[in-house]
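S.,

Sequence below, as promised.
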Amino acid sequence: DPVLVGGADWVQYRSSRRLRGLRLEFVSTAGARLQPTARTAQNGAPPIVPRTAWGAADCPPRNAPSYGQVRAAFVHHTVSTNDYAPEQAPAMVLAICRYHRYARGWDDVGYNFLVDKYGRIYEGRAGGIDRAVVGAQAQGFNAQTTGISNIGDHSRLPQSEAAIDAMAALIRWKLPLHGQPTSGRVTLTSAGGASNRYSAGTPVTLERVPGHRDGNQTACPGDALYAQLPDL
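The prediction came back faster than expected:
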């Protein structure tokens, strides 16, 4: 996962053993020092910072978006620094987009939405915030869900109240928009994949707001944030 290093001039790796195929990707966030303004959409969405405000013009999608369904909302974290100022968050979103597009080779930023610790929501993958855009955020379930990622590392540090409130507002709008309730459980069909916990075709029953780890082999969204999901 990407690591924001700010104004560092050099980087050093140290390993106790030889690592084959190791590659370092440098991601520039120049041009992303914007003052994002969240806008309330006419369709009743909470205030969301549009792609134009975090520099998405410098991270254009490879292909046109594809569409599926939204039956649940996976929660993630970016495993990046928690020590950032409000004006740095847009650059972090752009860095994630560039990492996903250029280092991972994906079409666009993987997440449908991102939220910072100050409670600002960012539009992620292109295609329309009110549409069922298929992201790259929960392998095997992307065509059935939306993905919200928290900027920061919440392995030990809980997410802020402002961010939890922002995610709640987003989910209260997004799931009913697609005809889904915001609580209870839902059964999705796994499409499989190397990181999926279930083989293709397996019916999987999850909470409407699951953590990434519930569907995939990962520690995401971190123990601290995962413990906050029942309240969310």
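Residues 161-177 form the longest helix (17 residues).

Coffee later?
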